[in-house]
Amino acid sequence: MFLVTDKASAIALMIVALWCLGSWPAFFNVLERRGRLPQHTYLDYAISLYFSACILALTFGEVGPSSASSPNFIDQLAQDNFPSVVFAMLGGLALCSGNISMQYSLALVGISLTEVVSASIAVVGGTTVNYFLDQGLNKASILFPGVGCFLFAVIIGSFCHASNEADTMAKFAHTTDDEVALSKGLLEGPPEGTRTDWSKRCRGWLRQGKSVLEQWRSRKTDVERDVNGKYAAVFDDKAPELPFMDETSSVAGSAAYLEHLEEVRAIKVRGHSVMLGLGVAFFTGACYALFSPLFNLATNDQFHLLEEGVPNLSVYATFFYFSTAFFLLSMVVQTYLLYHPMMGLPKSSLTAYLKDWKGRHLALLAGFVCAFGNVCQFMGGEAAGYAAASAVQALPLVGTLWGIVLFGEYHRSSRKTYTLLGGMLFMFMAAVVIIIASATERS
């Protein structure tokens, strides 16, 4: 089988895992904001993750000769390693529970805060447990200062989120109904049978970074107001839809955009307590803190539960059992939620899910990216310590980038918010560098 044993390769895998595991939640957020039911998205994601795990096991897990001390994936399926299988499947159940709760936390408090809270709890809890399971393999004098940086980052992140919430409330307080109607009308696109150079103008807006309302104020002649008080531009051909409702322009941070988003998204967040979202994010973090130590126990048998002479499970065999439990729980929970949805979501059915192809490719891609990221994380942990591999839980480094670029989560915020955001990201980067520096090759 393909294995990594040196420190440099392990660190490279951890960096790849960091990017993958920080990126796949963005696919979920895109689909939820486009109105796709989260149950449909998660079913596609779980199926993709499971099949990706099987493909990785049957390819990389079968590379090279098999031996008694290091059997390939197929050979390990017939071995008596039940205790390790149990730990692997418990890890899959923990990750699945965390991912399901993360979907709702993403909608309630956004991708940035969700990943800040959940990743910090996962790193503090998971790193500490893995350090003791690996019997101090990683250097404590380097490892735990890195964990301290994570704690400091989450404190800064909480102040950043509070400041951004205050900025959002200020936007609503100073926006008129006419401005909201205008911005919504332009976000939804112009009607057919009208005339103008809409495509060229949109590209110009994106390059200049100006909002729809700012452009309208400078070119009022391009906009007409009808008797109902709604606004529409004069166009000849149907305009191309802007990606993600024009979230790359500064209108993404406006009150009009937030109003429009609430109307089209699947999970309605208006009226739900922020504390509810934080509670869900904390539960997500607790689940994420458990799955890595359980995977560690499955691959290294620290409790000596296997019979003498039975080799430890390989990363690929462990990930196969891990993903099997993940897949089974996902199917049960998400099928139940189709018919008994939470948070005001509409009811669905298996038939409706099978017919829903809107955005399915993104959900399937999310499953593959997550599976590949997990394998990289576990291979890096097996080679250089699972405590050091916890650095890949610094998801806000990647998640916040996606939140800014795709979703405008901090767009048009105050200088105070940007200062706190910069401080938070700096502390996360410092934490990743320090924790990875504690990596030590496993003998």
UniProtKB/TrEMBL annotation:
It comes from the Eukaryota. It is a multi-pass membrane protein. InterPro entries: UPS_plant, Ureide_permease. The keyword Chloroplast does not apply. It holds the Pfam family Ureide_permease. It is found in: Membrane. GO terms for molecular function: ATP binding. The keyword Repeat does not apply. PANTHER family: UREIDE PERMEASE, UREIDE PERMEASE 1-RELATED-RELATED. Belongs to the plant ureide permease (TC 2.A.7.19) family. This is Ureide permease. It comes from Riccia fluitans.
